Amino acid sequence: MDENYLNDYKGFVDQVTSDPSKDIEVLIARLRELNNAEGVNIARLMTAGIGLASEGGEFDEIIKKLIFQGKPLTEDVKFHLFRELGDVQWYWMQACLALGVSPREVMDENIRKLEARYPGGFEAFRSENRKAGDI
Q: Left, alpha or beta for 35 (phi > 0: left; psi -120 to 50: alpha)?
């Protein structure tokens, strides 16, 4: 790969990156603007989002090793998955706290959403062909 191509790509990446992603002062101003907007605790929300991604990755790493690298599925591995799932749950609760919603509200809404999407049970077609507004 030649140096010009890399420099062009570097310029492209910079061009399509938002100001809060590049400038700490702009980021701080945006965080202040968002903090407590609509009753959301932005610091807690950031903690939840980054933590969920990280812990979900750790959970997936174990599964990857089981499926693709031949790691045996032992009680220790199951316990490791169990522990990582607890970490996912901890960050999930952080998100509930950040948004000011109860875990029950989140689960109830998830049930409503999936019952509407799959009224007769799971169908792959409905998974790929959703109605307008079904996020």
A: beta
Q: If you write DSSP's letter for every residue of the chain in order, what string do you get?
A: --HHHHHHHHHHHHHTS-HHHH-HHHHHHHHHHHTTGGG--HHHHHHHHHHHHHHHHHHHHHHHHHHHS-----HHHHHHHHHHHHHHHHHHHHHHHHHT--HHHHHHHHHHHHHHH-BTB--HHHHHSPPTT--
Residue linked to tokens 């191509």:
5
Chain segment 81-110, per-residue pLDDT in tens: 999 999 999 999 999 999 999 999 999 999
State both tokens at 24: 């700490």
Query: 127: Cβ–Cβ under 8 A, 6 or more apart, which residues?
Result: 117
Q: pTM for this structure?
A: 0.86
Tokens of 96: 């509930």
Residue in the block written with tokens 């610091």: 43
- Taking the domains of the chain in order of start, what are their residue ranges? 38-101, 102-135
Q: Which two tokens stand for residue 81?
A: 């998955």
